[in-house]
Model the fold of this input.
Amino acid sequence: MDYQLFLQLTLTGLAWGSVYALVALSFVLIFKATDTFNFAQPEIMMLGAYIGFTLVSVFHLPFFLGFVLTMLIMAVLTALMEMMVVRPLVGEPMLSIVMITIGLAYVIQGFVGMTWGYEEFEYPSPFPTDPILFGEVVISQAELYTIICTAILLVVFFLFFKFSSSGITLRATAEDTTAAFLMGINVKRVFTGSWVIAGLIAAIAGTFLASFTFVDPKMNFLALKALPAIILGGMDSVHGAIIGGLLIGVMENLAGFYLEDYLGSGINEITAYVVVLLVMMIRPYGLFGSKEIERV
Amino acid sequence: MLNTFRKLCLALTCALLIFPLGAARAEVGVTDDKIVLGTFQDLSGPAAYIGKFVTGIIKVWTHMVNEEMGGIHGRKVEVVIEDNKYDPVLTKTVYNKLVNQDKVFALIATYGSSPLTAIKGELEKDKVPIISTAASTQSMFDPPNRYLFWYTSSAQDEGILATDFIMNTLKPEKLKLGILYQDDEWGKDGRKGIELAAKKYNLKPVYSPFKRGTKNLSAQVLKLKAKRVTHLYISSYATTYASFLKEANKIGYEPVIIGGYVTVDPRSFIAGELADGHYHIFNHAVRNEGVPGWKELEKRFTAVGAEALLNSPLLPMLWTPLAHFTQVLQNVGPDLTREKVIDAMEALQDFDTGGTGPIRYGENMRKGTHYYRIFKADAANQQFIPITDWHEPSLVWGKR
Done:
């Protein structure tokens, strides 16, 4: 029974960790391409979930069509956000860009509250509700598809950054924007592209998270678990972000079950941060992050 | 000439002496033609949906008093509404504004344990009554504060009622009692209720707390299943309750569930048919019972275009104290003071709510709710059906 419990907790943790991983991936994609940090990613995730909910539940579109339209709308919105909000600040200190993304997060939060209100809604999940049995261990279909989708995205983006010319362009721009520009890379397009791809991944994460629970105006807080995931995996590592997210999902579930009686009910909420602190002491650049060497 | 000047000075001195005495006799917030009341609502914070709901109810009440009743003893009511964003620090600020700047007579229709806790001490100092608060924690009425009247469901009562129901009505052959609760003051009151009842019935319950805002309940659900809990009281919001049902269903865990009063909410049916057949504790009648009190609410709210507010089963929780307060103001008469209102609040017994749920205060009794019923969820019709009569918990507050 104990072994089954452990497996059950691990499997459920992997599913929740997959959501953290997807949001972490969206953070890292922007960071890798633009060398800046977009603090509005959790809110972009939430916005994607609300738009999907509206298209399917309010306008009664078939789920697949609603999902595709959501992706299109999110692509346009994130491109506009980058062009209108962030691009004018290119070349300004990093802190200014970070502050503007925090401001963007508040604007999206306010917009969601004003448009959809502050109540929870049931998300029209496309996944069948019957759980799937693996021996004695159970997983819901929404959880299973989330894990599969995360695994696919991990492979796709690993290959994209490693081998495709677009991926190499993104990495080159992040490494040295001026040099990339002088080499003929369309830096503006790279910036917009990274925001769009990151926005789409965040919207997918929002769809999965809403399928697990509900659409609600506080779902962005859950996505903040992606931050320790990024630090754990390494700020500039795609596979690090994903593995970090998965690890945090599993660890918080295991801690919530095994340590709660001894350390209190909040242990699963702080596990991620405790682990990050421990890892940072040993590997300050994360498990898979690049170690920056400054030569003088 | 000097004589005239002396007379004038004497008249002025008398006027200056008499005027403040006259002013001292008038109660703060009360004039010949109006009573100024205040409230703080979350209009733009995390509980803004509650603020919107309560503000709507206050508007309907104001309309009833001013337009339909023509005021109370010739005075119309005016309600100053301030946004506290559910923030305790901001609540202190807006409280001071309402009391010192707007000079309100009393505060009405408040809620939120942390905002109320922030100003509890001030109430006694300023002698400003709050009629009433729907903050769910025991500390709002225990120990009683002369100026703070409480009316909602007590989680401690609910814990005892849930155990009473299991032991005396369900009488299961196999029983392992458990509680899933939000690890805050409200949830801990529920836990205390379970502890008290467990002592009475000689049970050893399983406690499964979770932090407010937790969405992933898989560890808690697995713990309850692993510890073989057969009967579970849940002290949390409807959406958490629905999340629990989904997670429990996933792993094939099917305890008998008794939800607290906030689970008597259409949002519990987000879980679909999984919500069917479970029990809920509630201190009001629900709309589908068609009691006279609800019919009157339907008429009144529809007449002013506020019918959307009728969809919340919690409407009587806010409306009943306002209706009770209206009766109290009438009973006090034209010579209105805060202390007289408090005495009249204590004196008014058996107020007729039209069957929406009793309300009663008394000397040193600021707990307005004493009676509850158990309901059963009907997911197909999205309704809650009462299955017991009104009754008190077996361990009555004050004698526990």
User: Anything to note?
Assistant: The longest helix of chain B spans residues 2-25. Confidence is low (pLDDT under 50) at residues 18-24 of chain B. The domain at 155-282+373-386 of chain B is CATH 3.40.50.2300 (Rossmann fold).
